[in-house]
């Protein structure tokens, strides 16, 4: 049961991303902003910071591939981006004290890195024609605010679970 708990939580976050977009952010909304929930990425970043780099990298690969298969036409953009983001964030977390503020800043930075990777790769391939200033104002800023609030909401219960999982891994 303990082995499937963490992937199940990340999967629930992954499912809630698309549900949230469909329920609360319809396509014909009057807002000019693009809110992109990256809840599974936030959880993967927490795993990379609190459990270990390998788990974060593996979950980044798995859920990146799942995102590519379900939502994009090109396989590899999210696969690479989510795994690389988890790895980069875990490296930075080794050198910083793991408290609430540092974790939230690293989570927001990780979501930012993911968005820049995806934007850059999609621009390179020719899928995205959005200008950088429009991307920064209309997509990145609202996305960081939404995912920052999510990270604040789940910080204490999820980190408590991650510490228990980490202790279980050390015993085995």
Protein model, in words:
- This protein is mainly α and 172 residues long.
- The longest helix is centred in the C-terminal third of the chain and has 40 residues.
- It contains 6 helices and no strands.
- The chain has one domain: Orthogonal Bundle (Arp2/3 complex 21 kDa subunit ARPC3), CATH 1.10.1760.
- The radius of gyration is 16 Å and the shape is globular.
- It is found in: Cell membrane.
- It holds the Pfam family MreD.
- Keywords: Cell membrane, Cell shape, Membrane, Transmembrane, Transmembrane helix.
- It comes from Fictibacillus nanhaiensis.
Q: Class by helix and strand content? A: mainly alpha
Mean pLDDT across all residues, rounded?
90
What's the helix-strand series?
Answer: HHHHHH
Q: Main beta sheet, described?
A: none
Number of strands: 0
For this structure, the quaternary state is: single chain
Q: What low-confidence regions span 5 or more consecutive residues with pLDDT below 50?
A: none
End-to-end CA span: 15 Å
Total helical elements = 6
Q: Indicate the CATH topology.
A: Arp2/3 complex 21 kDa subunit ARPC3
Global shape: globular
Fraction of residues in helix: over 70%
Output the CATH class name.
Answer: Mainly Alpha
Instruction: Compute the CA-based radius of gyration.
Output: 16 Å
Kindly give the count of domains: 1
Q: Topology, pairings included?
A:
Layout: H1 2-24, H2 39-50, H3 53-71, H4 77-95, H5 100-125, H6 132-171
Helix pairs in contact: 1-2, 2-3, 2-4, 2-5, 2-6, 3-4, 4-5, 5-6
